Structure formats: C-alpha cells, structure tokens
Amino acid sequence: MSGLEQFKDRNVSQNYYKVKIDPYPKTGWEKFKRVLKRSIKLELFVGLKITLLEMIRFNIHTVQYPKEKLPIGPRYRAVHKLLRLLESGTERCIGCGLCEKICIANCIRIDTKVDEHGRKIPTEYTINFGRCIFCGYCAEVCPELAIVHGPDYENASEQRAHFALKEDMLTPLDKLKRQQEYPGFGAPTPVADQRIKKTPLAY
Amino acid sequence: MDAAFVIETIIKILIVLGLFSALAGFGTYVERKVLAFMQRRLGPMHVGPYGLLQVLADGIKLFTKEDFIPQGAVRPIFMIAPVITAATAFIAMAAIPMFPEFTIGGYTVKPIISDINVGLLFVLGVMATGLYGPLLAGMASQNKWSILGAARTAIQFLSYEVVTGLSVLAPVMIVGSLSLIDFNNYQAGGVSEWLVWKQPIAFILFLIAGFAETNRTPFDLLEHEAEVISGYATEYSGMRWGMFFIGEYANMFTLGFLASLIFLGGFNDLWFIPGAIAILMKVFFIFFFFLWTRASWPHVRPDQLMWLCWKVLMPLAVINVVITGIVMMF
C-alpha cells in the first residue's frame, strides 16, 4: 500500500494472539524465586536496549505540522468549494436547489435569479457551518459537480461565517487555472463510464 | 586567611552557582531531546536552531509568571521551601572536587570550594537536608495533593538515605577516609583500580538510591502527575517552582559527580583522556543514564518502593558492608 491507499483501509486486524502469563506466585518462597529470576535475567536492561536502539536508529515520526502536512484522503470532507466552468469561467451552479433540499442539517440557503442570458444563477449561496455535519450529501447530489468538499481542513478563524459565504467558497476568477477537479466526494468514479446503464425506458 | 583565598573562593562559588544554574536549564533541553528521540519524536524544534533557545523561552516564562501564593498556605514557609531545595543542592557541591588541580599564571587552583576532610559525609548530609524543601512545601501548601507529596517525600528520602549511607560505607572502609579527594587518589592507578570493580553491589545500590534521592523516574513518586497531580509542587508557579527544578537538576549533577568520584575513578587521567574531560564524560553518562531510564522504565508504586528499600536494598547493603569488613580483617 502506498500513497493515499492506506487511508482507505478500514480492515482492522483480527489476528489476536494470547500472551502467556505465568501463574502468580502464592508463597513467599515463590515470590522470592520470581524476584531472583527477574533480577538475574536482567529484564530491566531489555527495556533500556529498546529505547537506546530507537534513539540510534533515529527513525523519527514527527510531522512538524505547520511546515509539513500529511496528505489527506481523497474522500475527506472539509469546507465546501463552489467550482467554475474551466472554459468560460462562469459558475457551474445552475441554481437547481437540490443541495438545499437534500441537506439533512438544513444548513444550505440558496437564492436564485434568471440572468441576462436566460440562465438561472445563484445570487446568494450560504452554508451555516454551525449546523453543517459535513455529510457530503450536497456534493453527492449536485448534478453539475458545482459544490464539492475542498481540502482546507484548517478552520481556525475569527468567525465561523468566514468560510460560509458564496465569495469564500467560489473559485476566484483569477485563480481559475488552479481550480482542481476533486476526485473525492460526489465526483464520478473512475469506472463510471463502464458502470453506466441505459435508462430502462423499455418498460 | 589571606585575601587571595577569599577572592578565589568567591569566584569559585560564583562559577559553581552560575554554571550549574545554566546546566540545569540546559539539562531540561537535553532531557526533552533525549526522551523525544527515544520515543521517535523530535522534541523542541521551533525556538532557535533545533530548539536550542527553548531554555531561554522557558526561562522568560518562569520569570514573568505570577508568583502565586494560595490563601490558606503558610506564607513564610511556603515562600522559603523552594529556596531550601535549591540552596541545599548548591551547598552540597561545595565539598565536591570537580576537576583536577590546574595552574593559572603560577597560581594553583583547586577546583573545590572547600576541601574538608569529611567531604562525603557533608555532601550526603546536605543532600539529605534537601528533604525539607519538598516536605515543608507540601505541608505549607494547604492542598491534599501537596500533603500526599510531602508524605511521600518523607518516606522516600528518609528510607533511601539509609541505603545511600550503607552502600557508601563499604568504599569508605576500603579507602579509609571521607574526603572525596582521597577517594580520587585511591583510584589513581587506572581503570583496574576503580572501586566499582571491588564494590559492584555498593555501586548499584548507590545508583538506585541516587534515583530515589534525586526524585528521578523509577522512583519519582513525589510529583507523579497521574497520582498526585504534581505532588508537593502542585501549588507552586513561576520562579519558585523553577527553584525546585534547578535543585533537582543540580542534585542530579551532584550525584553524577559523587558516583564518578567514589566508584568510577574520579578525575584521574583515563588512558589518553585528560582527567577533567574524563570526569565530565562520566558525569554526563550518568546524567544520560537518568534520562535513559526515564524513557525506558515505568515507575513503581509507593509500597513497592518501600519493599525495595527495606527488604531488598538495605539487607544487601548491610551484607555488603559485613562481607567487606570480613575480607578486610583477614
């Protein structure tokens, strides 16, 4: 397993093994024998050896967090992003309101209008992050891949409304080139083309 | 008493005070780094290169923290208790010869503040007086955890004082003197002359008792967080708490010097290594050993501690003394 695959493995090992435990000493003589055995076998130095070896190997596992970051899983559900169409730069959102309908925490609010091209666009799009449970249904239901979960998990801010407005979530026009297609939540799977079936209209 | 002696002594005192206060600070850095490496961590990394200035940051924090005295505490005793710990730790260093004699501009300097003929007794006695620091601190704090810590101080320090004394008795019998310089000169003949070969049991007992006396990990019952919050130091903050800390680290260095002087050949030249560097290496190895055990071993219960002291270590120490006496007689 390499890369991000390891994060997907939820199969916790079931290979339990029994530790052999000697019966507890009952008489004083047996206790004395146990103490003697443990002292002469120098069990304490086994512990010392382990820590010293770890120090010499210098196999450090620290991630110096603000400088270094671990990769997050592709299906991680962080604060939402509203994406734009790559060619024209217009918003992908068609104002269908499915996300607002499906939201089980009832935290999405969308206001729409018909613009000058006769296209329906959202005038306001807010998510109440005090209520949002990051279930991902909105990204799943979106027919245009317009709302997705972004990779920003650093949510420290002065106010939680800072992430929640449309202008915060929408990709800015000048950064359109850097907009990513998220392979994660709500996106079509890589094998979607093979799996797709014709709508059964025959009956 | 001439003026040169007075000036020399004052300078030595200032050097010992300054150096070991700084070493105590640096010791915390080394401890955190060593523990971190043994636990596959990096330790302090952000303040300065490789976290070297962490000591400074800690110092600023300690100095600027509010000096808090609880309402129900016995004020004068509460205030003086950390001073006792720090002072005894430094006074104990007065009779320890740190390095071999050296000459500066025709003036021979003995790197010992006071060469008294009962040096070992003095050092052990003053270190034992250090018991009053934690004891009074815990009793004056008006806090249940503190009083538990103080009670543990009393049993632990007093009990292990017995082991320290008895374990050192055998080497004292062999050398026939209590002066640490005599101990050092006795082992002048090289590694084979070290007292640790003649008195291995005494060395191990002394080291174990040293762990208990300096309140280090297998026996750090006085301020074990999981059981008694911070023991006697629960109510302390700022520089008063810092003084406990400095005292503990100074005691670790004192013990390192004692163990190297009594058992590990002191500041005699070791093969090609000059004596001053040899003793520093020994002291720092013992200091490292303190940290090493802290990373490796769990600490014991108070009843196990007492069991270890009175049923194992003290009988062993007495038997060791008796056997040494019999061997010396014939």
What can you tell me about this protein's structure?
The complex is a heterodimer of chains A (203) and B (330). Chain A has 203 residues and is an alpha+beta fold. Chain A has a domain at 80-188: Alpha-Beta Plaits, CATH 3.30.70. Chain A is 25% helix and 10% strand. Chain A contains 7 helices and 4 strands; from the N terminus they run H-H-H-E-H-E-E-H-E-H-H. Chain A has a two-stranded antiparallel sheet with strand order 1-4. Chain A has a two-stranded antiparallel ribbon with strand order 2-3. The longest helix of chain A is centred in the N-terminal third of the chain and has 15 residues, at 43-57. The two termini of chain A are 46 Å apart. In chain B, strand 1 (102-104) and strand 2 form a beta hairpin. Chain B is mainly alpha-helical and 330 residues long. Chain B has a two-stranded antiparallel ribbon with strand order 1-2. Chain B has helices at 3-38, 54-64, 75-91, 119-129, 132-140, 144-175, 180-186, 195-198, 200-213, 225-228, 238-262, 275-296, 302-329, and strands spanning 102-104, 107-109. The model of chain B has no long low-confidence stretch (mean pLDDT 85). Chain B is built from 13 helices and 2 strands; from the N terminus they run H-H-H-E-E-H-H-H-H-H-H-H-H-H-H. Helix content of chain B is 67%, strand content 2%. Chain A binds chain B through residues 35, 44, 47-48, 50-52, 54-55, 58-62, 64, and chain B through 34, 36-42, 45, 292-293, 295-297, 312.
CATH architecture of the domain at 80-188 in chain A: 2-Layer Sandwich
Give the strand order, joined by hyphens, for the main sheet of chain B: 1-2
User: What does the largest sheet of chain B look like?
Assistant: 2 strands, antiparallel
Q: Count the domains of chain B.
A: 1
What is the global morphology of chain A? elongated
Order of helices and strands of chain B: HHHEEHHHHHHHHHH
Uncertain regions spanning at least 5 consecutive residues of chain A: none
In helices, the fraction of residues of chain A equals 10-25%
Strand percent estimate of chain A: 5-15%
Oligomer: heterodimer
CATH class of the domain at 80-188 in chain A: Alpha Beta
> How far apart are the first and last residues' alpha carbons of chain A, in Å?
46 Å
Structural class computed from helices and strand pairing of chain B: mainly alpha
Order of strands across the main sheet of chain A:
1-4
The helical percent of chain B reads 55-70%
The assigned structural class of chain A equals: alpha+beta
Which fold name corresponds to the CATH topology of the domain at 80-188 in chain A? Alpha-Beta Plaits
The whole-number mean of residue pLDDT values of chain A reads: 81
